[in-house]
């Protein structure tokens, strides 16, 4: 039987922790994105930069939103779990009447809520600086959930299998950051040499960023096969993480 009270308690705890550390969890990512926008606004006005006949800043703004959500979705669960391991409080969760799968669901649900908060706040701040508008709220929410689930699963995977901050930083520096920067956030695939286009063409995260960007255009076209590819990739990442939690590998010392 599902322990909804325990799941709700973990979600409430993580949200309370998130808001209590607002300088790190909210102000820092928003400030980073504001700096990005201000720098690129200056470059765009000075050099008259455009991508695919669109304003350069309008092109990168959705990518900046989803990039910061992805980074925070990875950081928050991985940091939480590693910190709990080091101080020994993860044992309290494992001794409580809640399964490890329910713990995983609690972490994912709280990450989805936090990710939406970060995304909406960034969008509101961006709307004060540039002319940006969401045309498809349904797919805006869908692709946000997809990104949050994938990177939260990665964060939960790293946080439960490893015990050191070095490993957490290694995954962040050598996987999360590169995949964000190579997802087409700052450039269009049309400007890449033909020999390098395969990097994005077979990268499911590139399609997520592209479709998320389309939510800010008045003409949104849903492509079935790329979205099926994305869905398959997300399901595999979730099932792999759920399997690790279910087996309890390296969770119990």
Global geometry:
globular
Judged by helices, strands and strand pairing, the structural class is mainly alpha
The major β-sheet equals: 2 strands, antiparallel
Regarding quaternary structure, what we see is: single chain
Summed up, the helix count is 10
Q: Which blocks of ≥5 consecutive residues have pLDDT under 50?
A: none
Structure in words:
It is built from 10 helices and 2 strands; from the N terminus they run ααββαααααααα. By secondary structure, it is mainly α. The protein has one domain (4-247). A two-stranded antiparallel ribbon has the order 1-2. The radius of gyration is 19 Å and the shape is globular.
Please write out the topology.
Layout: H1 4-20, H2 22-47, E1 50-51, E2 54-55, H3 56-87, H4 90-95, H5 100-129, H6 137-161, H7 165-181, H8 198-201, H9 204-214, H10 224-247
TL;DR?
The protein is mainly alpha-helical and 253 residues long. The chain is built from 10 helices and 2 strands; from the N terminus they run ααββαααααααα. The chain has one domain.
């Amino acid at each position: 039987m599902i322990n909804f009270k325990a799941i709700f308690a973990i979600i409430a705890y993580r949200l309370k922790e998130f808001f209590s550390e607002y300088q790190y969890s909210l102000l820092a990512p928003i400030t980073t994105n504001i700096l990005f926008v201000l720098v690129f606004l200056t470059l765009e006005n000075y050099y008259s930069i455009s991508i695919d006949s669109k304003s350069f800043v309008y092109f990168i703004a959705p990518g900046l939103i989803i990039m910061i959500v992805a980074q925070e979705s990875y950081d928050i669960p991985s940091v939480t779990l590693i910190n709990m391991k080091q101080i020994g409080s993860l044992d309290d969760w494992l001794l409580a009447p809640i399964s490890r799968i329910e713990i995983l669901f609690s972490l994912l649900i709280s990450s989805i809520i936090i990710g939406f908060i970060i995304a909406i706040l960034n969008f509101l701040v961006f709307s004060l600086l540039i002319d940006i508008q969401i045309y498809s709220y349904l797919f805006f929410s869908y692709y946000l959930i997809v990104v949050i689930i994938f990177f939260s699963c990665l964060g939960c995977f790293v946080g439960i299998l490893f015990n050191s901050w070095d490993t957490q930083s290694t995954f962040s520096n050598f996987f999360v950051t590169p995949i964000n920067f190579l997802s087409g956030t700052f450039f269009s695939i049309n400007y890449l040499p033909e020999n390098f286009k395969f990097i994005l063409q077979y990268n499911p995260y590139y399609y997520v960023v592209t479709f998320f960007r389309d939510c800010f255009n008045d003409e949104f076209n849903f492509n079935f096969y790329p979205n099926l590819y994305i869905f398959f990739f997300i399901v595999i990442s979730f099932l792999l993480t759920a399997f690790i939690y279910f087996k309890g590998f390296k969770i119990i010392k």
